[in-house]
Specification:
- The complex is a heterodimer.
- Chain A is an alpha+beta fold.
- Chain A is about 30% helix and about 25% strand.
- Chain A has helices spanning about 10-20, 45-60, 110-120, 135-140, 150, 185-190, 225-235, 250-255, 275-290, 300-310, 330-340, 365-380, 395-400, 410-420, and strands at about 25, 40, 65, 85, 95-100, 105, 125, 160-165, 170-175, 200-205, 210, 215-220, 240-250, 265-275, 295-300, 320-325, 345-350, 355-360, 385-390.
- In chain A, the strands form four sheets. In chain A, strands 15-12-14-13-17-18-16-19 form an eight-stranded antiparallel beta sheet, sandwiched between helices.
- In chain A, helix 1 runs antiparallel to helix 2 and helix 7 (about 225-235) runs antiparallel to helix 11 (about 330-340).
- Chain A is globular, with a radius of gyration of 22 Å.
- Chain B is an alpha+beta fold.
- Chain B contains 17 helices and 21 strands.
- In chain B, strands 13, 14, 15, 16, 17, 18, 19 and 20 form an eight-stranded antiparallel beta sheet that branches. Chain B has a five-stranded antiparallel beta sheet with strand order 6-7-11-9-10. A four-stranded mixed beta sheet of chain B has the order 2-3-5-4.
- Classes of the chains: A alpha+beta, B alpha+beta.
- Chains A and B meet through strand 9, helix 6, strand 11, helix 9 and helix 14 of A and strand 10, helix 7, helix 8, helix 10 and helix 16 of B.
Chain lengths: ~425, ~500
């Protein structure tokens, strides 16, 4: 059952203490979401404990926010209720790793750093860009991703199967452990990007890919952001051995400390070159030919990994992410550069996959809200969307960070089916789900 | 009783349907309906009417009229499906999308196309070839199958190994929900905020709605392509080589396998150069930069040699490549030379289990006395055993289905799945419980409920249980038809 009135402290305590014992602690600011601090932090030590705790919370009308590495907690609208942070940290084991099949099944609390180390021993990796401290479950819930999607696609393309604890504590599995499978509905795809509003991910099976034999990064300076976008799209037309391509403006370049000089208004095209030796050499040559008028810098393999990891980290401040048809990136970036909105602020785009990330200058809430609305209108007009991925709570209370979405009625039906009491992440998802 | 489940289709309903789509776009005379009784599988059931809408609004109206009249609705593309997905299991109205076949837009800058569901798979690649683009998923039926059907089944094909199955290529969908609403799922960008309804709709086998527009990603044609044919004396060697190629870190664009039985059917029919005394052949294609494929091709050769290949041939010219592929694409069709009937199965196992599972498949065939011809999307661990039989022999069809079930069971026991690309459909719904618990299936039912899908909406598909399903036979349909009298049509 659930009521509109918040449950008293004893409700959460009496529901969860018998199940979790010492695994239930008082809430701390570290687990605050949009300024709301939970009264309790639950850290189950097994899947069974997690499902029992979730079922009890659901029964008692206690609102739960699943918590992995805490890396993506800025995403989402302000929670309408928040009683308990449910940590998955202790569920961090490998269930099955069949290196010869290039598949792995792990518990959702494992971090990307942990997983990466295990896979690297076999020369393999999971090509989803996520912070090292992010958990598997958290990254999937937030649909984490970055520049690697140029070659590797999205997180949803690598998830073969998953187990989720539904709000009522019942465990369900979707997908499987083989690389090709169309049996039943594709629940894994539904879960990716659902921000923990349909269930708590407890286990995931991924397909994997071999680590590239060699890697390097080429940076090339172009006189404007538009010219940078054009250069990247021209390189893409050639089908070169690239696993990522990014456009970086001057302020973002300064933060990244790229080691290459750039004037205000200019842009850097960054190319992650990967593959066999001959393909890498050919690609480097072709890119050099495309960048004859540019200052260039080549980063070796070691520096390549850290460069691209830092590139995908937060820009700080209020951060927006536009998802566009690729050819619309140039125009979208131009409206930022010409207008007042993002001018002079850090901007990173992945033109080949249609992603633009931009930070906004600090300003009055009203002004920020109107900038967001204007940029969102531009994104929608270009056939895309815009999500505010990080913002102060005052701004979040003024705007919907997700914007309007199609088929909201169907999405509400889904939420109603999977979490009728709105126990999981209430209010944080699209349309107030 | 089952009879209660089958409503009669009176002339009033036919007139309503005709008012929406026009008289020539509604078929209801029994002799007109025969061609719509089946798809590519064994199961058959006759619809009471077939309607050919030409736009989303008409689809929506047709769906509402049928459901209001208490009639089941079953969407249908080209009818080439291989799991009974387009079979009107409980009769009712078939919504055939084949007249919605416009390519609405080709946006070469964004490498996408917007198409109607009746566009034939291969026609899209032809239409965008002048932009140096193509549509990657290539089911063997690509000359006939429709993109709407591909979306419903999440169709695969040989080149899905490197480039992914249909779902990896669908950006957005306009669909008519089971309640007759027109909504957009996804869009023109790779990601849209909210639940990935696009992702769950693809592969839902026509149980969550009817797709009326599709936004598809197109790929740039690779700079170069190489096709190799590796010939092995033994099936075991070939299937071990598959695992070794992938394990070596090479992901070919395609990695297909055909066993001796298939070669025996293909070679005399198509003369593509597969040796008749081989145990199995692998057809391996690598594409991309010239430099990349040179490296990959030599790695593939090394692995095949190490696994005991008798010979590794490489197609030098486009014509040779096409010939090697003609053998693969025509494989299933050529099986008709070996037996009057063949039953195509679709299972998946982890690649490393391929040798053991193939041995089990042959053993099952021997136990039942059926030859089995195996075609595999081997790189994905996706098997297509074809059980060869003669339906005219009494009892043989039933035994074939039993042998098929045992093969599916062997795939599941090896940690695999009951379908890699053909879908669960009507045919395999009772096997779903082998891989999913009741709770898992209940979660899928929640998705179905969220889309407003009722018992009448594409009934008896995908889910193991359904009102009246598994009980209706053509004989029962015929009986109801007689009872209904001359003014009603079933």
């Amino acid at each position: 059952m659930s009521t509109n009135a918040p449950p008293d402290t004893d409700t959460a305590e009496s529901a969860l203490r018998p199940i979790l014992g010492d695994g239930l602690a008082g809430g701390e600011a570290e687990f605050a979401v949009d300024g709301l601090t939970p009264r309790y932090v639950a850290t189950p030590s097994s899947v069974d404990e997690l499902t029992a705790a979730l079922a009890a919370a659901n029964e008692a009308g206690v609102a739960v926010i699943p918590w992995g590495g805490g890396c993506h907690m800025a995403l989402g609208n302000v929670p309408s209720r928040y009683d308990v942070a449910l940590r998955t940290t202790k569920l961090d084991g490998v269930i099955e790793y069949e290196a010869a099949d290039l598949t792995v099944t792990v518990e959702a609390g494992m971090t990307f750093e942990q997983l990466g180390a295990i896979l690297a021993e076999h020369g393999q990796f999971l090509p989803i860009d996520a912070p090292g401290q992010a958990t598997i479950g958290g990254a999937l819930a937030a649909a984490a991703g970055g520049p690697s999607q140029h070659a590797y696609g999205l997180a949803r393309d690598w998830l073969l199967g998953c187990r989720i604890a539904q709000a009522d504590g019942v465990l369900v599995r979707g997908g499987g452990r083989v690389v090709k499978n169309v049996a039943g509905y594709d629940l894994p795809r539904l879960i990716v990007g659902s921000l923990g509003t349909l269930g708590v991910i407890v286990e995931a099976t991924f397909k994997l890919t071999p680590l590239p034999a060699t890697e390097e990064t080429l940076l090339a300076v172009h006189p404007s952001l538009g010219a940078t976008a054009d250069a990247i799209l021209a390189a893409d037309e050639r089908g070169l051995a690239l696993t990522a391509a990014a456009l970086i403006d001057a302020p973002a370049a300064a933060e990244l400390n790229t080691g290459i000089d750039i004037d205000p208004g200019a842009g850097i095209a960054a190319y992650r070159i990967a593959g066999g030796a001959a393909a890498v050499e050919r690609t480097r040559k072709d890119l050099a030919a495309l960048s004859v008028d540019s200052a260039t810098l080549l980063l070796d393999g070691d520096r390549t990994a850290s460069f691209w990891r830092r590139l995908n980290e937060t820009l700080g401040g209020v951060e927006l992410k536009a998802s566009l048809p690729p050819a619309a990136v140039r125009g979208f970036v131009a409206t930022l550069a010409d207008g007042d909105a993002g001018a002079g602020m850090p901007l990173i785009a992945y033109p080949t996959v249609g992603v633009v990330r931009v930070a906004l200058a600090d300003a009055e809430t009203d002004e920020m809200a109107s900038i967001v609305e204007r940029l969102r209108a531009n994104a929608i007009a270009a056939g895309g969307s815009l999500v505010v991925t990080r913002a102060p709570v005052e701004l979040k209370r003024r705007i919907d960070v997700w914007g309007e979405v199609d088929a909201l009625a169907l999405m509400r039906n889904l939420k109603q089916q999977f979490d009728p009491e709105s126990t999981l992440n209430p209010g944080r998802f699209v349309g107030g789900i | 009783m089952v009879e209660n489940e089958i409503k009669t289709l009176d002339k009033g309903v036919i007139r309503s349907l005709e008012r929406v789509v026009g008289r020539e776009a509604v078929l209801w005379r029994p002799e007109e309906l025969i061609a719509f009784e089946y798809d590519g599988t064994i199961d058959r059931a006759r619809p009471q009417a077939v309607v050919f809408p030409t736009n989303a609004e008409h689809v929506a109206e047709v769906v509402r009229i049928a459901l209001d009249a208490g009639l089941p609705v079953t969407p249908r593309g080209a009818g080439t499906g291989l799991s009974g997905g387009a079979v009107a299991a409980l009769g009712g109205v078939v919504v055939a999308l084949t007249r919605m076949k416009r390519i609405i837009e080709v946006d070469s800058e964004n490498r996408l196309a917007v198409v109607e569901p009746g566009v034939v798979n291969l026609e899209l690649s032809k239409a965008v070839a002048s932009y140096n683009l193509y549509y990657a998923p290539d089911p063997s039926s690509q000359r006939v199958c429709t993109l709407g059907g591909n979306v419903a089944e999440n169709a695969g094909g040989p080149h899905c190994l490197a480039y992914g199955v249909t779902t990896n290529h669908v950006l957005g969908l306009e669909v008519v929900t089971p309640e007759g609403e027109i909504v957009w799922l996804g869009g023109r960008a790779r990601e849209t905020p909210g639940y990935d309804l696009r992702g769950v709709f693809v592969g839902s086998e026509g149980t969550l709605g009817i797709v009326t527009k599709i936004v598809l990603r197109l790929l740039r044609r690779p700079e170069a392509t190489r096709t190799l044919l590796a010939i092995f004396d033994e099936v075991d060697q070939a299937s071990a080589a598959v695992s070794s190629i992938i394990g070596r870190g090479v992901v070919p664009a395609a990695l297909e396998m055909m066993d001796a039985e298939v070669i025996r059917a293909v070679e005399p029919a198509l003369h593509v150069g597969y040796p008749l005394d081989a145990g199995a052949v692998l057809l391996i294609e690598v594409d991309g930069l010239r430099e990349t494929i040179a490296e990959q091709a030599s790695a593939v050769r090394e692995v095949c040699d190490a696994e005991g290949a008798r010979e590794v041939r490489e197609a030098e010219e486009d014509a040779e490549r096409e010939q090697l592929w003609a053998g693969r694409k025509g494989a299933i069709g050529a099986l008709g030379r070996l037996a009057p009937n063949y039953y195509v199965l679709d299972g998946v196992v982890p690649r490393t289990k391929l040798p053991a599972v193939l041995r089990e498949v042959y053993a099952i065939g021997e136990r039942y006395g059926f030859p089995i011809a195996n075609v595999l999307h081997a790189g994905d661990g996706n098997l297509h055993p074809n059980v060869l039989f003669d339906e005219r022999k009494p009892g043989e069809t039933a035994r074939v289905l039993q042998a098929g079930a045992e093969i599916m069971r062997a795939c599941v026991d090896a940690g695999g799945s009951i379908t890699g690309e053909h879908g669960v459909g009507y045919e395999k719904r009772s096997f779903l419980k082998w891989i999913f618990s009741d709770a898992d299936i209940a979660a899928m039912a929640k998705v179905k409920a969220a889309f407003g899908s009722s018992e009448l909406y594409n009934p008896c598909k995908l889910f193991p249980t359904g009102k009246g399903c598994g009980e209706v036979s053509q004989a029962q349909v015929d009986r109801v038809m007689k009872q209904a009298g001359p003014d009603a049509y079933i």
